[in-house]
Amino acid sequence: MAAQWFDLVFDIPANQAFSYRADEKGEAAVGKRAMAPFGNRGRDSLGYIIAERDAPPEGLSESAIKPVRRVVDADPLFDERDIDLARWLAAYYLCGIGQAVAAMIPSGRRMVSFGSLFGDDDIAAAALELSVEQQSALDAIIGSGEWGVGGKSPPSLRLCEPPLPPSAGDTPATPPSITPCSLLPTPHSPLPSPPMLYLYGITGSGKTEVFLRAAESMLKDGKSVIYLVPEIALTHQMAELIGKRFGQSAAMLHSGMSPGARLAEWSRIRRGQAPIVVGPRSAVFAPVRNLGMIIIDEEHDGSYKSGNTPRYHARQTAIRRCSVEGAKLVMGSATPSAEAWKLMAEGTIKRLNLSLRLAGGSLPDIKPVSLENAEGCLSAELKEEIRLTAQMKRQTILFLNRRGFAHFYHCPSCGYEQTCRRCSVSLTWHKSKGKALCHYCGYWEPPPVACPRCGSLEAGYRGFGTEMIEEEVRRTFPDLRVRRADADAVGKKGQLEETLSMFRAGMVDVLLGTQMVAKGLNFPGVRLVGVILADTGLHLPDFRAAERTFSLIVQVAGRAGRYFPDGKVIVQTLRMGDPVITRSCAVDVAGFFNAELAQRKALQFPPYTRLIRMSIRGKDASRADAAIKRLAGIAVPLMPPDADMLGPAECPIGIINGNHRRQLILRGRSMGTLHGAARVMLERYEQGRDSRVYLEVDVDPVSLL
Ligand code: ADP
Ligand code: ZN
Ligand code: ZN
Fold first, then answer.
1. Smaller CB count within 10 Å for the chain: N or C?
2. Of 271, 232, 221, nearest to 251 (Cα)?
3. What is the pTM of this model?
4. Among 81-90, 147-156, 336-345, 506-515, where is mean pLDDT lowest?
5. Domain ranges, ordered by start, for the chain
6. Is the minimum distance from the CB of 333 to ligand 1 under 6 angstroms?
7. Nearest residue by C-alpha to atom 23 in ligand 1
8. Domain 132-157+193-354 identical in fold to domain 365-405+464-599
């Protein structure tokens, strides 16, 4: 007989499930979604059925429990394995279990078949012969067993640390008409880390080909593969490539698809019809059967971390899935994250090197150029190279770092910049307050009248705008075809695709772009890459500023010289001689990380510590202030001995959308103890919370803006 009682979770910040009676048609089952009365007015909400039970929860009479109104899905969308992953997400990222499930499962209500993405007729086996390095990397990936090389047991891994069980703390008041059934159990025993390998190869060294062959070999063994790529542009390029190689065995899951199409792909994957799945961050939840391998291409990419609750990181989630499901994790990048670099150095992640460009190119000649005496934003050298490139009928990419919004203090005579004494991050100028502020610890200084180091009166606050740059390029080169590809210019759907394919077809001479053009794009005709101002990102008040700047420059530079050995890169800077700029121009990844990791260690930032960021936002500044102060007061006695608290302080972007933002950061040696303190904090904060401000929790934040 079918079960009569079900537990549902909803998309709310509560670690709680709620009991319902079966619907009349008897369609309810674990893994399906259902509409059920929920909330203060008992209106219907979408819930996820995560358990069935033989009897109503103890102490509750049958009549007190409401029935499920309507079951949405004909077939289950998720199973025990997915629920376990959701529990882990909720415990690790300190969010509600229902929020975790909602993030995993496509939101579409009706499946919309969008035809098969790829045809089997198009399948073309790889014609390339692998290089020696590629072959040995592939052998290492295929050969890595339970634990890689030499059967050595995995060292304990910080990234994989099991969280403490969640508490009931963040549970909102239960609506009177609804029956809460149970606090969810959290069965998280420590797990061994999975085999982890890293294809560390210069840009254009053929990492993709190795990933594809490793995937083919997995599929041949009857296992499934999830292939993660950064958001937007690269997804399409990869989808095409994967479609050609795997035909209908390939599925795609990305945010640009309609919810119905996503749902259809999801079901196809669940039925085992698509053993290889390609997609951005959220594809890490793909319900493949018999997972053999997760690939994370461009592992350093910021889009692998979710910007909404639950703020999960695809890498962390992939580690969890691989260890639970006995799969291996294969990552790759020319510019690994600091976390990955450290783990490679320690041997926890096995590094596989690719050092050559294989398509006829070689690493371009990268030259730092001072922008100090240029009139506008194009140096004489960059102008000359653009002209030369156009004469050769080749193409130019100009890269603008959009994140350089901040107004920072700079001295043109001696290079002095105003930084925080305690945190070693740039101070940000707040005109309205008349203060240069540190957004980590709240430290501030008045604006200097003259440069504090050399006394120059020309020092001051500076910044850059993108339209201004476009204008200058058009003015300087009226006969060149210029297109801009950034969030503003490609607002309309498909416009980025159009711009990129026009560029690929040679119909555009100069492509002006932001981060979007830095990611893995492969344009044969590009000779010149110009970075307009390399240091903008360095001024951001974030301890990852140097890492991001370094990796961005190396990645953008990597767009040149992929097919011809005459690639040229001009990196404009106001910080000639700055080690980050110098090392990125030399593509000295090891040199950069040696210095950077030493600095992180000295200042006690990740990967040497772990962080949990708690931020408050609210329309009323004084309420936001009061709330963050209260939260900080709660935190002080809870801080474990190996942990401390940064802040409370205003967020670097102090107001967004009329919301005042405040933050504090818990910093500790182990995520286990931090999690423990954070849970009690949230619990106490909840009692007597001001309902007009919102609290957001970010575990392992990648951005502190
Ligand atoms: P990466 O991902 O490392 O930046 P790609 O995978 O984009 O590099 O490869 C760059 C180019 O090299 C591609 O055009 C690819 O077809 C080519 N390539 C890869 N492997 C080989 C090989 N073994 N022989 C020749 N060309 C290759
Ligand atoms: Zn000076
Ligand atoms: Zn500071």
1. N
2. 271
3. 0.86
4. 147-156
5. 5-104, 132-157+193-354, 365-405+464-599, 610-699
6. no
7. 130
8. yes
